[in-house]
Amino acid sequence: MSAAEPYQPLKQSAYFRQGLRAAVALPAVILAATFIGIGSVCAGYGMPLAWALLATVLIWAGPAHLILVGGLASGASWLAVGITVGLSSVRLLPMVVSLLPYLRLQNRNPVVAVICAHFVAISIWVEGLRLLPQIDAEGRVPFFLGLGTGLLASATTATAAGYFLAGIIPPAFSAALLFLTPIFFLLSLFTTARALSDRLAIGFGFFGLLAASTIGDGLELLYAGLGGGTIAYGLARLKRLREAP
Questions:
Q1: Is residue 100 part of a domain?
Q2: How far is CA 183 from the centre of its chain?
Q3: Are residues 163 and 50 in the same domain?
Q4: Measured distance CA(225)–CA(208) in Å, rounded
Q5: CA proximity to 123, closest of 86, 87, 148
Q6: Domain range for 159
Q7: Per residue of the chain (245 residues), what is the pLDDT tens digit?
Q8: 235 and 119 share a domain?
Q9: How much is the CA Rg of the chain, to the nearest whole Å?
Q10: 3-state SS of the chain?
Q11: First-last CA distance in the chain
């Protein structure tokens, strides 16, 4: 009886191609549909196609992209628009931090770390948390880079498609496409939530948003997110303390 063959890890390029294949899935379709809407909005505001594509590649976040287009169309200064876009993207920082234990970038080139951080958005964050634990530790960074490259290519292509379809797609339909990614994100949160604090945060955040919307001061997302998350963390921590021996 022959001995079992030793485990042979994949090459870095093979992990990258595996990430590209993983990008050709439902998140890429939803992402493409969303950026078709964004491309249509860019064309409606008169933004040149090259600028629209560059914004997709560099900003890589639907809400920030719309802030850029709307801000420039309203005549706001570049500095004000840039600061607003930057502040809107602070929400992605916790997503980057949550992916760091999987990617283990300590010994990597800083440029690679920056590219990995740039790729983080709602879609790749959800897919990264789901897929990275299944990948060998040495292949997670190239896999993540392949996944990000595939999703970004899908979004960039969709931006161009939406730009050229701007006169064909009804404005209401374009606006509806923009909501696909938030809906996907919400459903993904429900399916991937494992810890009690995660489930409580989703529940308190959802119902807290409904309650905070009655205030009408425009800060309902802050109230629901900060308040719901704090209450969820406190209750989950209290439960762990009670269960501790």
A1: yes
A2: 12
A3: yes
A4: 8
A5: 148
A6: 12-181
A7: 445 445 455 677 889 999 999 888 877 888 888 898 889 888 888 889 999 999 999 988 888 888 888 888 888 888 888 888 888 888 888 888 888 888 887 777 888 888 998 999 888 888 888 889 888 888 899 999 999 999 999 999 999 999 998 878 787 787 778 777 777 777 777 766 677 777 888 888 888 888 888 887 777 777 888 888 888 888 888 888 787 66
A8: no
A9: 20
A10: CCCCCCCCCCCHHHHHHHHHHHHCCHHHHHHHHHHHHHHHHHHHCCCCHHHHHHHHHHHCCHHHHHHHHHHHHCCCCHHHHHHHHHHHHHHHHHHHHHHHHHHCCCCCCHHHHHHHHHHCCHHHHHHHHHHHHHCCHHHHHHHHHHHHHHHHHHHHHHHHHHHHCCCCCCHHHHHHHCCHHHHHHHHHHHHHCCCHHHHHHHHHHHHHHHHHCCCCCCCHHHHHHHHHHHHHHHHHHHHHHHHCC
A11: 50
Structure token pair of residue 11: 């090459």
Number of domains in the chain: 2
Q: Within a domain: residue 2? A: no
